[in-house]
Amino acid sequence: MVGGISLGLVSLAMFLAGSGEGRLLAPDQERNAHQLIAELRASDPVARTRAACGLRELGDAASEAIDPLVALLDDASPVEPTVCERRWWRGSDNDQTTPGEQAASALVAIGSRAVPAVLAALQRPSWVARRNAAWALGALDDSRAVKPLIDVIRDREPQVREQAAWALGALDDPSAVTALVAALKDENPRVRKQSAWALGAIDDPRAVQPLIQILGDPDEHARQQAAWALGAIDDRAAVQPLVRALGDGSPGVRKQAAWALGAIDDESAVDGLVHALTDQAAGVRSQAAWALGAIGNSRALSGLLTALKDQDASVRRQAAWAIGAIGK
To answer: Can you tell me the distance from the alpha carbon of 164 to that of 287, in angstroms, rounded to the nearest whole number?
Structure first.
């Protein structure tokens, strides 16, 4: 089964784990905190990054570091991700991080006391600071950030708009739906893609028709994310548009459309999904078999029995599961 694509969520739990609330610093920890705060101003970006990571480990007990960390949010000096001995919040193992990004994760670990200062950072002249602040506000999951982020989704810089869209989806507040629907028309495809994810995360039926329109977006990643979002919202109005998306030129979109149809669980999708069992991409065929099993209509049995002879083992396994699911 295919899931949604979410900017920044992959490693969020790793950054939040272990941060206690209301902890007091032991004397040696207090000295360490003061030293780390001083190192945030070091000339070496590696030292600044390590200091931010060290403050993150102290969690909300490092609240005196809020202002220095906010000041570091615009620091975009590239640093190897292994500096902090953790996978960082924005990318993969091979991507670089920055002191500003690690400062954002430290502010999240500090918790709600950091929110006012991070909100103020949304007005900073540096777009890097605004982007990092937007991520932190989504990760902090504080409702005070919703309205400011709605304003920021119209920021002049696309990377800030993209991160604001993610944050609004993470906050899961229906009051953001109108702004996110408008962002589906953004000139930048990454903003459109992230807005589609956010609308699926919020799960509001007002987004269904705008997301259906995005199934025709020129960017395949935006189309793929729209298909996921429609499956997440689970509205039958999306069934036939998603069936048509099974013929999309991108196998990623076709695969996501098949998942969405299985998630919506409407029998009118069976014929389209049976046809998708002959798709040229094995991933699409396997996903279509799963969707047919999820729907559970016996009209799919003939196509699934044929799929038991598919050249791809994953398709054969999924078809066997689907036949068993329909039999039950």
So the answer is: 31
Task: Round to whole Å and give the CA distance between 66 and 116.
Answer: 10
Six-digit token string for 175: 């009051």
Residues 256 and 2: beta-carbon distance below 8 Å = yes
Burial of 245-271, coded b for 16+ CB within 10 Å and e otherwise, reads bbebebbbbbbbbbbbbbbbbbeebbe
Phi, psi of 249 (to 5 degrees): -70, -15
Residue 79 phi, psi dihedral angles, 5° rounding? -140, 145
Per-residue pLDDT, averaged over 295-309, amounts to 97
pLDDT tens column, 101-116: 999 999 999 999 999 9
Give the mean pLDDT of 55-59: 92
- The domains found in the chain, sorted by start residue, are 1-140 (no CATH), 234-328 (1.25.10.10)
Task: Give the residue from 236, 237, 273, 235 showing the smallest Cα distance to 254.
Answer: 273
The whole-model pTM stands at 0.89
- pLDDT band with cut points at 50, 70 and 90 for residue 12: very low
pLDDT at 20: 42
The residues, any chain, with a CB within 8 Å of residue 232's CB and separated by 6 or more, are: 4, 200, 201, 203, 260, 263
Question: In the Cβ-directed half-sphere of 132, how many Cα atoms lie within 13 Å?
Answer: 29
Tell me the torsion sign for CA atoms 247, 253, 255, 256. negative
| Residue listed under structure tokens 């299985």 | 262
Distance from C-alpha of 210 to C-alpha of 208, rounded to nearest angstrom:
6
- Give the bridge partners for 79, in sequence order: 97
Query: What is the rounded average pLDDT of the residues 312-317?
Result: 98
